[in-house]
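Subject: Sanity check before I submit

Could someone independently write out the C-alpha cells for this chain? I want to compare against mine line by line before I put it in a report. The sequence has 159 residues.
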Amino acid sequence: MGDLKKVRKMQLQRVAGLLGILLALCTFGCQKSPPPKPVQVTGLVVYSNGQPVTGKVITFFPSDDNNSRGVAPTIVLEGKDGRFKVECLPGKYKVTMMPIPIGSGGGPGNIESPPDKDAGKGKETISAKRLEPYRSTNTTPWEVTVLPEGTPEQKLVVQ
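---
Independent answer below. Compare away.
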C-alpha cells in the first residue's frame, strides 16, 4: 500500500506541475499585443493627364479587420499640387473623394462642387458625373494598403 501512495503522490505532483506550466504559458503567451501605431501616408491626387486635383476632400475608410476600429482620416486637397499627408493604422483602406462642401466653414452645406474658377482656362476640371464613382466606398476604384513599416508614396488617378 505504501508504494501505491507514493505513485499517486508522484502523479499528483506531475499533474500540478503541468497545470502550473499551462497557467504560466497562458499568462505570458495570451497577453494582448500592443495596438498598432499609426503610419504616415503621403501621396498625390491627379487627373489622368497628370494635372493635380485641388479643392476636393479625400477620406480613407478602413476596410479590413486590421484597422476596422480606426478612424476614417479625411484630408482636404487645398494646395495647388494635389499632395496629401495623413496618419493611418496599418491595413487596407478604400479612398473616396468629394468636392469641398459649399458653406464648409460651418454654414449650410451642399455636396455639389462650387463653380470651378479654372474652367475654360486650359485646366482640367471634374464634372459631377465623372466624380460619382469616387464618392462611395462601394464604387471607388481607389484602395490603399498601409504597411506597418511605412508605405511608399501613393498616386491616386482620376480616370
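---
OP: Matches mine. For the report I'm noting this point. The first strand starts at residue 39 and ends at 47.
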